[in-house]
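User: I'm writing a short report section on ligand binding and want a predicted complex to refer to. Could you take this sequence and zinc ion and write out the structure as tokens? A short remark afterwards would be nice.
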Amino acid sequence: MSIFKFLFKKSDLECPRCLGKGFVDQEDIRRLNRQLKWVPAPCAYCNASGTTSPEMLANVPVDASYLTIDLPESEIEKIKNADPEMLEKGRQKELFLDNLIQYVEHHYQTQNMNAEGIAELYIKNEDERALFAVDKEDLKEYIEKIIKLKKSEIN
Ligand SMILES: [Zn+2]
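Assistant: Sure. The structure tokens for the complex follow:
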């Protein structure tokens, strides 16, 4: 039901995430420094409407990594309402990714390891109590993305 909410809510506040396009593109991703966390997709911040509300601006940071369009609608609603449990889950997810990115950068720069090697090492040393399980092929692909970005920063 809430999917239609934006149609009825009058608002002329331009969405600061997609700048009113309703779509987050590479340019927006770069501007918000979320290259390793988002891919181009319809904007979750404004539900692809291009406009947002004062409540939304107050409750959710524009660059909140965890608010993406692939989440179930119920979770998106919870984030918009600043549900503490949901925000904590989002923080954990972000922390997990930040740690992983640091881990990869460290091994790439100091040990000169490739994505395959780093993925193997990471999985071997993975904490059994880790909050997020990772699939090796997905992990490798993600590590390649981190290394590629790192290289482009150096050059
Ligand atoms: Zn937007």
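A remark for your report: Residues 44 and 69 are 5 Å apart (CA to CA). The chain has a mean pLDDT of 89.
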